[in-house]
Amino acid sequence: MIEIIEAQITEIEERLRQAMLTSDVRVLNELLAPDIIITSHRGELLKKQDDLAAHESGAFQFHELNPSERQIQVCGEVAIVSVRMQIVGSYQGSAANGDFRFTRVWAHTEPEIWQIVAAHISQVA
Fold first, then answer.
1. Mind listing the pLDDT tens digit for each residue in 7-45?
2. Of the candidates 114, 82, 119, which has an alpha carbon nearest to the alpha carbon of residue 5?
3. What CA–CA distance (Å, rounded) separates 31 from 10?
4. Contact yes or no for 59/92 (Cβ under 8 A)
5. Residue 76 above 90 pLDDT?
6. What is the DSSP secondary structure assignment for residue 89, as one 8-state letter?
7. How far is Cα 68 from Cα 119, in angstroms, rounded to an integer?
8. 48 vs 53: CA distance, rounded Å
9. pTM of model > 0.85
10. Which percentage of the chain shows pLDDT scores above 90?
């Protein structure tokens, strides 16, 4: 069972990556839980609306998102993902390139629907 969940999470993580690359707000809206808690690499707390608005407005522009070192830990109906991401892009017109680590908590918010309920981003020193 754990292998099946890990495969599902791997697939949905790729769907998330593609949605971030193209700022596909429709897909991002599906993948982010309504009450998601996001902690940015600056320590700011963000809500779902903040993330979607940044994509919709073009404030976030990702040209490359190259994942590595992905780890998935399954705990019942929750999956925790840690992934290192090399980012090439911009935020509000300024270069935002770098090496980041994302931690995401995926949960079944409805039967057979995985959504991110918490996310944390840190810049790798």
1. 999 999 999 999 999 999 999 999 999 999 999 988 999
2. 114
3. 13
4. yes
5. no
6. E
7. 17
8. 8
9. yes
10. 83
